[in-house]
Design a protein that fits this description.
6% helix, mainly beta, Porin
Length: 388
């Protein structure tokens, strides 16, 4: 309760301060922007997605029967509010501070627990030289693949009938999660449609903060995108990779977490087609770097895994209809640290979006999920997202 009051007091204080300083508050599209006389700018954006989820989980109960549940829950993106504070440009250099606060809707019997988190606290410096980001923010590897329409404004995969917090989207059924970590990144300017982003990411310690595990250097991540503009649309092609070393001192054993990916997104008229494929080592079928959903993460050392999905959407006016299918899989593997079984996750989604107003979108989603590591389920989901 004290933490909640502190956040609310802070937000109200910031809002009051900016209101006193601002001379021309206005609403630009979905961004609330305030400017001062000396060209400081304060911008607030956000989104609040809320869903009702009806799902049937096969053989979930201890007696082997199915479990059906109805839950009101967050989506792949939790509710969030983002503050952008931009200093006046000097000598062609722009500096911005970005803060994001996130709120999760909780699962059954969980109240007022972990309501807030901060995913982004970032300094962004940009100019003709490109863009440098330093702080906490989104990763690079698989980041373009994560922009799928199915879970981008929806739910995607979730953990079970009492799923809490944000859901998994296509993590483990299409891509490895880039996650929000402290990092230092550099992005080139647009070079005729080509751009390159590379960075140093805080390494993951698969078994937590243990004196038995050493991660001496940051994880290296990079991604190159090439955007081809056409008269009727565009083609975005990307390729990326990442690598990080893990040294398990107690076992005199070291291994690399690594991966590469390829993908493309084609826009033509109202039609969008997306296809992505990636291979990883040391990241299992769950698609979480340095972690897994059921173990310590060390049992995934040297495990080989793949992630892929395909998606098609069509937009006509304010209505969008789409479908996507994807898989995440790993091969059985054993090391001195543990064993990983063969696992395959499969997710089929059919989804719709309807833009009721400029700020409010209605969302529908039907899922069929099958897995060797989690109970199969079918789900019907309806909800909405408010953008500002």
């Amino acid at each position: 309760m004290k933490l909640k009051k502190l956040y609310l007091t802070t937000l109200l204080s910031i809002g009051l301060l900016i209101s006193l300083l601002a001379t021309s508050p206005s609403l630009y599209a979905q961004n609330i922007v305030y400017e001062t006389n000396d060209n400081w700018q304060f911008e607030v954006t956000g989104q609040l997605p809320v869903f009702i989820n009806l799902s049937n989980h096969e053989s979930y109960n201890t007696d082997g029967s199915d479990q059906f549940s109805t839950r009101i829950m967050s989506g792949f993106n939790p509710g969030n509010i983002t503050f952008n504070i931009s200093a006046p440009e000097m000598d062609g250099v722009s500096v911005k501070a970005i803060f994001q606060i996130n709120h999760h809707l909780q699962g059954a019997s969980i109240q007022n627990d972990g309501l807030f988190e901060g995913r982004i606290a970032d300094i962004e410096i940009s100019g003709d030289f490109g863009t440098v980001n330093m702080g906490k923010g989104f990763g690079i590897f698989n980041s373009s693949s994560i922009g799928d329409a199915g879970s981008g404004m929806g739910i995607g995969r979730f953990g079970g009938p009492d799923a809490a917090n944000a859901t998994l989207g296509r993590i483990g059924t299409g891509y490895t999660y880039a996650n929000f970590n402290p990092r230092l990144t550099y992005t080139t300017p647009d070079l005729g449609g080509f751009s390159l982003k590379a960075g140093l990411i805080n390494p993951e310690k698969p078994d937590g903060l243990s004196d038995q595990i050493t991660t001496t250097t940051p994880r290296l991540e990079a991604q190159a995108n090439y955007l081809i503009s056409l008269d009727s649309g565009s083609i975005d092609v990307w390729a990326g990779g990442m690598t990080q070393n893990v040294d398990v001192v107690s076992q005199n054993f070291d291994y690399n977490i690594s991966g590469w990916d390829l993908g493309t997104r084609i826009n033509a008229g109202g039609l969008t087609l997306t296809g992505t494929y990636s291979e990883t080592k040391g990241v299992g079928a769950d698609g979480l770097i340095g972690l897994n959903l059921t173990g310590s993460g060390l049992d995934q050392a040297n495990v080989d895994a793949t992630q892929w999905y395909t998606e098609a959407t069509y937009t006509a006016g304010d209505f969008t209809l789409g479908t996507s299918y994807g898989e995440g899989s790993q091969d059985a593997n054993s090391t001195v640290l543990g064993s990983s079984p063969d696992v395959t996750n499969q997710l089929l989604m059919v989804f719709s979006r309807y833009k009721l107003t400029e700020q409010l979108t209605l969302i529908g989603e039907v899922q069929n999920f099958e897995s060797d590591a989690q109970a199969n389920y079918q789900a019907f989901i309806a909800g909405m997202q408010f953008n500002f």
